[in-house]
């Protein structure tokens, strides 16, 4: 007789929400809003600092200091909520837009800036903070996250891995291999899909025929959950639950954080060519930071002192970024070849020598 299959999961289309767009608490009871005041303020600080640094990145790109930048404006709650409840030893596998998560891990603005300036090879320092280098090749890093989770388990570690992926990434074959592999091997991995409604100019509705991204989890036999990605407390609670399950042998979870990319895809994109001003306005009214600030005011956690502290940190980090980028020394391009393999191959050595010879001619 065939093995019995797992009982199908059901997925609620209504996202988990703890704070309404107007800042008032919802009637949700499965998840808790009760975090210590210091944690509540820290989440706020992290979101605002992320947004301010994001703006500085855009300014630097406009001033010709960076070729390209992908803004995370609008997605601060999703990223901060998801990353803040994890342990520092849990590995993050980012796509490229996760500035908030990078900052939470202690990656410096200059280190993030070097990646966007193309001055360093993909942010190798990120790995010192248990963050994999960014994955521009869409969808590939889901598999890395699953492999790392399976390895951690075999080594007897109780860490989890989190793959941050976009809605568009879930249209890639690699993502589905990752979902399946994670599920059948019960890997301690969480797929955190930021559904920001767009994959460059392709709306999410053109990418799948199913009811939601979270529903895809059903076919793979893992829990799928939709969460309001503009609600930092809901993202925190849902990720905390999924990470806990993964850490204790319960296998992977697919979380769909429903959010919005407020800016263009990257600084090279003009979104007015494919989306309406009304749509953008509609989402601006659901701004994750304004909503959370109103909530903090209502529970007596917001203060002038908090605001001043946040502004001072933003100022310091933006200055740090600017100092690192403008007139900052570039890394030695020869290093590009040193970290591909433990020992350089003859072909890479040939390419390195060719590059150095060309650079010497230019000097
Ligand atoms: C394998 C691959 N195909 C195509 C691209 C070009 N590309 C870059 S970003 C992107 C859209 C990704 O959308 P999504 O996963 O929703 O992430 P978002 O940019 O919205 O955060 C595409 C198609 C790529 N980088 N890699
Ligand atoms: Mg997207």
Automatic annotation (TrEMBL):
Keywords: Oxidoreductase, Pyruvate, Thiamine pyrophosphate. It holds the Pfam family E1_dh. Residues 1-33 are annotated as: Disordered. Residues 45-320 form the Dehydrogenase E1 component domain. GO terms for molecular function: magnesium ion binding; oxidoreductase activity, acting on the aldehyde or oxo group of donors, disulfide as acceptor. It comes from Mycobacterium dioxanotrophicus. One of its GO terms (biological process) is branched-chain amino acid catabolic process. InterPro entries: Alpha-ketoacid_DH_E1_comp (IPR050771), DH_E1 (IPR001017), PdhA/BkdA (IPR017596), THDP-binding (IPR029061). Its cofactor is Mg(2+); thiamine diphosphate. This is Pyruvate dehydrogenase (Acetyl-transferring) E1 component subunit alpha.
């Amino acid at each position: 007789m065939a093995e019995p299959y797992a009982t199908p999961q059901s997925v609620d289309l209504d996202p988990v929400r703890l704070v309404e767009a107007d800042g008032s608490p919802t009637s949700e009871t499965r998840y808790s809003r009760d975090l210590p005041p210091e944690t509540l303020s820290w989440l706020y600080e992290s979101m605002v600092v992320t947004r301010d640094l994001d703006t500085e990145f855009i300014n630097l790109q406009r001033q010709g200091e960076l070729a390209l930048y992908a803004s995370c404006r609008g997605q601060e709650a999703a990223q901060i909520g998801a990353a803040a409840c994890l342990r520092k030893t849990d590995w993050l596998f980012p796509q490229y837009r996760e500035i908030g998560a990078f900052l939470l891990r202690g990656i410096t603005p200059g280190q993030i800036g070097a990646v966007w300036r193309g001055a360093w090879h993909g942010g190798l320092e990120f790995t010192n903070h248990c963050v994999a280098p960014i994955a521009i090749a869409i969808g590939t890093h889901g598999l890395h996250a699953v492999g790392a989770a399976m390895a951690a388990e075999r080594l007897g570690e109780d860490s989890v891995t989190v793959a941050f992926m976009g809605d568009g990434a879930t249209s890639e074959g690699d993502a589905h291999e990752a979902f399946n592999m994670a599920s059948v091997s019960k890997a301690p991995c969480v797929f955190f899909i930021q559904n920001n409604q767009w994959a460059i100019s392709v709306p999410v509705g053109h990418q799948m025929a199913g009811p939601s991204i979270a529903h895809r989890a059903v076919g793979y036999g893992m829990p799928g959950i939709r969460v309001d990605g503009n609600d930092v407390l809901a993202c925190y609670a849902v990720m905390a639950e999924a990470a806990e399950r993964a850490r204790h042998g319960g296998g992977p979870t697919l979380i769909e954080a429903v959010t919005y990319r407020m800016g263009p895809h990257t600084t090279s994109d003009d979104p007015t060519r494919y989306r309406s001003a009304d749509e953008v306005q509609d989402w601006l009214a659901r701004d994750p930071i304004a909503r959370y600030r109103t909530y903090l005011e209502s529970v007596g956690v917001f203060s002038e002192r908090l605001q001043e502290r946040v502004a001072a940190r933003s100022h310091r980090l933006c200055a740090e970024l600017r100092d690192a980028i403008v007139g900052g020394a570039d890394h030695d391009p020869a290093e590009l070849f040193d970290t591909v393999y433990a020992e350089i191959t003859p072909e890479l050595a040939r390419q390195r020598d060719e590059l150095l010879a060309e650079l010497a001619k230019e000097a």
